[in-house]
Write a structure and sequence with these properties.
Elements lengths: L1 E4 L14 H9 L3 E5 L10 H6 L3 E3 L2 H7 L2 E3 L17 E4 L7 H10 L2 E4 L14 H18 L21 E5 L3 H13 L2 E6 L2 H10 L4 E5 L2 H7 L5 E4 L25 E4 L20 E4 L2 E4 L9 H22 L1 H7 L1 H4 L2 E4 L2 E2 L2 H6 L8
Parallel strand pairs: 1-2, 1-4, 2-3, 4-5, 5-6, 7-8, 7-10, 8-9, 10-11, 11-13
Antiparallel strand pairs: 6-14, 12-13, 14-15
Helix pairs in contact: 5-6, 9-10
């Protein structure tokens, strides 16, 4: 098979879909790999690194798409890429269709095969290709939140760890999944007081068992959320419903109950966000303020630490890329139920029900 690795063109996205190590495995299996010039530069990989393992470097993104059967990338295609994707392509990337009706319609129109990293699902319900980026984003949420709590950036002026004689900052984490647990771990490490909420009591018991005493758990309800947002300095939104829009746990009217300078970091922004006032931002312009509450809603947080993120991503995607390349997408998905769950759109038809539900479309009529 011919695999293409284009340079990511989303704002400040420095990750790349495949490391030289990953390309080496593909060429070793007699596949041809085209890599766009400087595609890996932001992650610390030179064109020569790819050439050394058998890749062919192409100058433009147009050449990569035109020459390849399967495209392996990181983020969803953006407007400039829409015309480049055709019915011959299998596109393997993070899509997050539920958050973009335009993207969904474009991928339906071009009749490509769209396999989404974020819905590849193991039998135990875990999401192996989403997990490493959720780990990165959960940890970064605290790193960024701590920064934006500083007064010069319109935050409350709170040091999360406090100092002797001064109580630590308070962090509220919504969701006890991968993002939430990693965020709680980082915040606890800084010495902050952490409250983590979820509706899954099994997860809360797990958190209670493994976290230190200054991380407390609480059942998530609107009443409890309204109570906690009044005295917490940093709020992390880390809820996820597989392939679907995130529920709005914090509504616009709740912002007025927060103290001025409170910071909210909505890691669920890729799926529409779990805060009603969320709108996607970029690393170039990451924050905005509504009702004196600082919102950080960068849609590709791991893109700011591309070396770590690219290595972590290729570690988990490579086995599936090899399977798709060796067997073709149909046979690979027939033989691997986990990979089959990643099929979102196939030749002009939605095959992942939650996408249609996000836009109130009738999947059977499509």
């Amino acid at each position: 098979m011919i695999i293409g690795v284009p340079k990511e063109i989303k704002n400040n996205e420095n990750r790349v879909g495949m490391t030289p190590a990953g390309v080496f495995e593909l060429t070793k299996n007699n596949h041809k790999v085209f890599v766009q010039k400087n595609a890996g530069f932001g992650s610390g990989f030179l064109d020569q690194d790819y050439k050394d393992v058998g890749a062919i470097i192409l100058e433009t993104i147009q050449e990569v798409y035109a020459s390849s059967d399967m495209i392996v990338k990181v983020k969803e295609p953006i407007e400039e890429e829409y015309p480049l994707i055709t019915s011959k392509h299998v596109v393997f990337t993070y899509f997050h269709f539920a958050s973009s009706e335009i993207l969904t319609k474009e991928m339906l129109k071009n009749k490509s095969v769209c396999i989404a990293y974020e819905t590849v699902e193991d039998k135990d319900g875990s999401l192996p290709l989403l997990t490493p980026m959720s780990e990165v984003a959960g940890r970064m949420a605290i790193q960024q939140g701590a920064k934006y709590l500083e007064k010069p950036i319109k935050g409350r002026g709170v040091l999360l760890g406090g100092v002797p004689g001064v109580p630590p900052g308070r962090v509220l984490v919504l969701g006890a999944g991968i993002v939430g647990i990693q965020a709680a771990k980082m915040a606890a490490g800084l010495g902050a007081h952490v409250t983590i909420m979820d509706i899954n009591m099994k997860q809360l018991r797990y958190v209670n068992d493994v976290m230190p005493n200054h991380v407390v758990t609480e059942f998530s309800s609107e009443y409890n959320i309204r109570k906690r947002i009044k005295d917490h300095d940093l709020i992390i939104g880390g809820v996820l419903i597989k392939g679907a829009k995130a529920p709005k746990l914090i509504t616009r009217d709740m912002l007025k109950e927060m103290r001025p300078g409170t910071v909210v970091v909505d890691v669920a922004v890729d799926q529409g966000g779990c805060i009603e006032t969320t709108k996607a931002t970029t690393h170039e312009d990451p924050t905005y303020i509504i009702d004196d509450v600082v919102h950080y809603c960068v849609a590709n947080m791991p893109g700011a630490v591309p070396y770590t993120s690219t290595l972590a991503l290729t570690n988990v995607t490579l086995p599936y890329v090899l399977r798709l390349a060796n067997l073709g997408w149909q046979k690979a998905c027939e033989q691997d139920e986990t990979l089959a769950k990643g099929l979102n759109i196939v030749k002009g038809k939605i095959v992942y029900e939650e996408i249609a539900e996000a836009f109130n479309w009738n999947i059977d009529a499509m």
